[in-house]
Amino acid sequence: MSDVLVDIRQLTAGFRSQGRTLGIVRGVDLTIERGEVLGIIGESGSGKTVTGLALLRLLPENAEVQAERMVFDGQDLLTLDDDGFGALRGARLAMIFQDPVASFNPAKRIGWHLHTIFTRADEAKARSVATPWRERARAILHDVGITRAEETIDLFPHQLSGGMLQRVLIALILALEPDLIVADEPTTNLDKLVERQVLRLFRDLQRRLSAAIVFITHDMATAASLCDRIAVMYAGQIVEIGRTRDVFEAPSHPYTQGLVRTSLALARGEGGRLAEIAGELPNPSQLPPGCLFEPRCDKAFGRCRVERPEPFPGRHGRAVRCFLAEMEQEPS
Q: 10 Å Cβ neighbour count for 117?
C-alpha cells in the first residue's frame, strides 16, 4: 500500500463574478501521506482556506475548480458525481471550520449530532455496535475533556462556549473516524489557554485515528509545534514546501524568510518595531507579470520581473518556487 493518501496536481480555483472568473488558487501541487500533519501557512488571502474547501468540494456554487489530478487513496475524485463525493466526505473525509458554530444545526441538541455521526460511521463501516448511543456519546465527550458529558448531550449549540463547541466538534470527528481531516484555523477564535488545550486534543486525535490532517493556520508557532511538513502559500501558489524543521530552521523562499523572521521576533518579545514584510498581497485581478512576490521582495532581480518561477526541487521532498533557490544549487 502506498504511503500517499492524497495526490493533487495543478489545482486551480476561482469565483465567477460579473461575467469573469477571479482566480484565487493557481496550480497547486500537493501530496499528503497517511497519518501526517501537513500545515498550510500564509497571510490572510493567500488561498489557504480555498485550497482546503476545494479539496472537500465545499466551495459555493459560483466557484470554478479544475485539476489535472485529484486522487484520494487510489480513487480518482474527479470522476465522482456530487452524491458519490458526498458519501465519501461524510465517512472518510472531514472538515473542522474556524467557526465551530457553523458546523452545528442550531435547532438540534448536541446528542442529536453525536447520534447522527455514530449512525453514519457505523453504516459506512458496516458494523453493528451493541453499546447504546448515549453511553458512547458520554464516553467520547469525556475523551475530549468535557466532564459534564451527560448534561452536554442535552444542550443546544448556542448554550456552549466556542472552546466547548470546538471540543464537541473534535468528538464528532473521533466518532466519524475519517482518514483525512482538513482543519481551517480551528483555534483562531479561542483564548490562549483553550487554544493550547485544543491543540493537545488535535495531537491526540491524530494519534488515535492515524488520520492525515491538513492544518490551515497563519500562526507559525502553532504550525511548528503540530505539523510534520509545512506548505507556505502566497497569492494562490505554494512557494515553499518541506519538512517543518527544514522550513523553519533554513527557510529558502524570501517570503518564508520574512514570515519566520517576524514569528521569531514575536516569540522572543523583542522591543522596538516589529519586522514586517513590506507591501501587501497582489490583487487577484491585477497580478504582476513575473514572480508574484517580486513587488515585495528585496532580493528580486531582472528575471523575477518578467518570468514566473516553477517549483525547484530540493532534498527530502523540499520544493521552492524561487529563482534564487535554483541559482544556489547550480554548479559554479
A: 22
Kindly report the CA angle at 307 between 26 and 17, in degrees rounded to 5?
35
Residue 114 maps to a domain: no
In a domain, 275, yes or no: yes
Domains contained in the chain, number: 1
- pLDDT at position 327, please? 74
237: three-class secondary structure by DSSP: strand
- What percentage of the chain reaches a pLDDT higher than 70? 94
Overall average pLDDT of the 135-152 stretch: 92
| DSSP H helical ranges for the chain | 48-55, 82-89, 110-124, 133-143, 149-153, 162-176, 192-209, 220-226, 244-249, 254-268, 323-328
Q: Where in the sequence is the domain holding 37, given as residue range(s)? A: 4-92+178-329
160 found inside a domain: no
Q: What's the CA gap between 69 and 8, in Å, rounded?
A: 5
3-state secondary structure of 219: coil
Domain-located, residue 23:
yes
CATH, residue 304: 3.40.50.300
Residue of 204, 192, 82, 96 whose CA lies nearest to 144: 204
Residues 282 and 295 sit within 8 Å (Cβ to Cβ): yes
Structure confidence by residue, pLDDT tens digits, 217-241: 988 888 998 999 999 999 999 999 9
SS3 187: coil
Q: What's residue 17's pLDDT?
A: 84
- Rounded Cα–Cα distance for residues 320 and 120 (Å): 41
**33 pLDDT exceeds 90?**
yes
The Cα 112–Cα 97 span in angstroms is: 19
Are 202 and 141 in contact by the 8 Å Cβ rule? The answer is no
